[in-house]
Amino acid sequence: MNKLIKNHIIFAIDNDEDLHTVAKFTRFVDTQRALGYLRYSPVICKGYYKGEYEQSYMMDYNDFYTFVKESGYVDNQDSFLQLSPRNPRTIALMGYLVFQDGRPTELLGEWKNLPRGFQTGLDCFTIMDGELFVCQ
How many other C-beta atoms are found inside a 10 Å radius of the C-beta of residue 102? Predict the structure, then answer.
């Protein structure tokens, strides 16, 4: 794993509709937060991917790969959305799909905030803190 600065991962967990699984995952991540191991508290969001809504989380790239990736909670996920700075001197982020099965990473485009209501017809998007985000 490469240590990356200002990179984030948005992901869903396996079995995200099972209350017990979500509670165990939340407790696991919150323990890391309480111990001061996370760069920032993960953000709960709602993702839309491959025609399905899923509860999702955004967290620091390094925290994800240190604590979550090998935890057993994301083993059956097809891919993760990685947000990386376009260049070191900008706050603009680019979105990439990082596949679990070894397929090459896919560039999706710039991470943009769109007005709510524009999600109709989009293949994938994320709703976070009441705001709509897409990679275009």
Answer: 5
Which string of DSSP letters, residue by residue, matches 105-128? PEEEEEEEEE-TTTTTT-S-EEEE
Total-model pTM = 0.92
Residue 66 pLDDT exceeds 90: yes
Going by C-alpha positions, the residue among 4, 55, 60, 62 that lies closest to residue 25 is 55
Furthest CA-CA distance within the chain: 42
Nearest to 10, CA basis, from 66, 75, 60:
60
Residue extents of the structural domains in the chain: 8-135
pLDDT in tens, 109-136: 999 999 877 777 788 999 999 999 999 8
